[in-house]
Amino acid sequence: MSSEEREVYEKKVLDKLVDLLLDNLTHAIDRVRPGWKVRNEARVEEFKLTLYALNRSPPGLLGLSLVSFFILIALIGPYIAPFSYDMPLVLCDRNAYLAPPGTIITVKEGSLCSEVYGIKPGNYTLILGADDYGRDLFSRILYGARTSFVVAVLVMAIGPLIGITLGLISGYRGGSVDETIMRITDVFIAFPGLILAIAFSAVLPGRVSEILDMFPPLASATLSLFALKPEHVGALANLVSVIIALWIVWWPGYTRIVRGMVLSARENVYVEAARAIGVPTHSILFRHILPNILGPILVFLTLDFGGVILVEAGLSFLGLGAVPPIADWGRIVYDGAEYFPRAWWLVFFPGLATLLAVLGFNLIGDSLRDVLDPKTRRRIEFRVKGKR
Amino acid sequence: MPENCDPIIEVRDLYISFYTYAGVVKAIEGVSFTVCRGETYCLVGETGCGKSVTSKALTRLIQAPGRIEKGRVIYYPKPGHPIDITSLDEGELRKIRGGEIAYIIQDPSAALDPLYTIGFHIAETMNAHGLVRSIREGFREAVKYLNKALMPDPEERVKSYPHELSGGMKQRGVIATSLSTKPKVLVADEPTTAVDVTIQAQIMKLLKELKSGEGLTLILITHNMGLVAEMCDRVAVMYAGRIVEEGAVLDIFKSPKHPYTRALLNAVINPLVRTSKLESIPGTVPDLIRPPRGCRFHPRCPFSSEICLERPPSFLIGQDHKVACWLYKDEAQGVEG
């Protein structure tokens, strides 16, 4: 065995980290629910192997770290941001106007800034610069991560759900049900998704704001979800409209692929056996068909997560969705384009943030495909198991 | 039909077609038979003759592109209480599937979902028929049925996934699943094709014991003549979507009437007759998109004549022995269909 091969067989630091984490976790669960560890030992082992496999794919690791970083920022970003997303720092220091990255601004004692907006007097470095109102770009990008993340999560929670359910029904029922669902899907696919989303996000806000007015708790919940100030409740309607618009256009792809997979999965003898033994249709669909086609769907979902972020940024860039002063990556680019190339940072940094987030999801999706595919998975598994 | 037969399943003039791109495959044409309560009824024939399709039609499991064109399947849960399965709605039908008429599918490794344990399969079935309140409860019950299906070490095996079991164990798992709903009819579609001979013997012994123990009616589908001779009370021989001969097992083996049955018995080792040489049947199985006119066997039949271009009815020759062949027109005691 060459030294190179030997290296591959050894457990990496990351593998040990996985062991440490999972061992402690299973131990903790075992304490709450005695016997859990023994019963689920195989499952935990399998999960560990999945993570080991992921550890052996550098792009996957890169994707994982990018995505974890993005999620972390989305969760804590609004709390660690030095300034609020709508703080016009020009009121404090004229230098903040289109300040290039690294500009130092001074907030004087007793100025409007410290009196009204409660910013402590002192010197501040605008790491990534500021826009034409002097709003800190770094803070806005942190807030923007939250906006993208919330939109992506909400879209991915509902859109694919509709798509997968319709695909399951279509593929399993067949006949005229299949024909009807698929023709409707075709109509949606034939129409460019982005155009449709533009149309919907342009039409919906009026109705959405009426609904939000009717249910104040809903509005305030959405506000805190996006980490927005209460006075910006008016901007919500547009954000929510984008989400609804994306729900409307985001399912056909799933219906298509799920239907295709169901068509082959339903021919499995165990599906017929389940039918013959009198198992109800919904159990067959969700217990026997869906779990057996979940691998590819999971990959598609991960890849698509980046897609939603991109489309959402695109819509904002076109002036739909987030309205000022809401921080949104696409919107920051749109507003900054006016000053391009003089204030290049207004376009470059939010663009880079979008790129990295989308890249992260794509890389993860790609390596998940390898990890979840039994063929490549076993190969990785043997490599890990070799030296144990 | 034998005397004092209490029918449990009656199939009347069944027609099933498959609408494929190549054309309409007339898989079953005018099949009628009656299964008596408590007997073992066998459907015999070569691959593609429609045995499995017929068995699936018993609970309307035929899926698109297949369609039941015509005919009735009548199930008698109690003597004198007919239920027309062909016109039942899906919800009612689901109770009968598994609950009253259960299947043992031929390939046990394919019949079990690889994602679930044997216990889960049994529990799910019982849960679907409302015999247990939850899957968890069904899991506890599962051991009992695995025991019944003579699964070794059932307490452990109930937690096993299909890939952890041998073929014979899987087949026992499938049988336990079918038994868990206490069905009245068990349809075994070639239960032994996927397992080796020693397991075959064990499985058949098990089925025999279960049949007498649980008072089951067994419908056995096979192409294995040895199995037929050993297991069956009555046999229906199928050829190209029709029943060509039906009768008590001894009658069929001792005095086969239909030329196809005779050829078939000459082609395999007949356990009751001393055979010096096995013969093959000349020709090939007909294309069911364009089946031969009249008797479907006539192109391969050494006795065929003009009249064979007309479809032969079922001639009753002797007690409970029917044959669909013009050769027996004169000695027939009665005509059916």
Description:
The complex is a heterodimer of chains A (388) and B (337). Chain A has a two-stranded antiparallel sheet. Helix content of chain A is 71%, strand content 3%. The two termini of chain A are 16 Å apart. Chain A is an all-alpha fold and 388 residues long. In chain A, 43% of the residues are buried. Chain A contains 19 helices and two strands. Chain A has three domains: 3-75; 87-126, no CATH class; 141-365, MetI-like (MetI-like fold), CATH 1.10.3720. Chain B is of the alpha/beta class. Chain B has a domain at 38-61 and 87-237: P-loop containing nucleotide triphosphate hydrolases (Rossmann fold), CATH 3.40.50.300. In chain B, the strands form two sheets. Chain B has a nine-stranded mixed sheet, with helices on both faces. In chain B, β7, α8 and β8 (217-222) form a beta-alpha-beta unit. In chain B, α4 crosses α5 and α4 (118-128) runs parallel beside α7. Chain B is globular and about 65 Å long. The two termini of chain B are 14 Å apart. The interface between A and B is medium-sized, with 19 and 30 residues.
Brief descriptors of the model:
heterodimer; A: 388 residues; mainly alpha; MetI-like fold; 3 domains; two-stranded antiparallel ribbon; 19 helices; 2 strands; globular; disordered N terminus; B: 337 residues; alpha/beta; Rossmann fold; nine-stranded mixed β-sheet; four-stranded antiparallel β-sheet; 13 strands
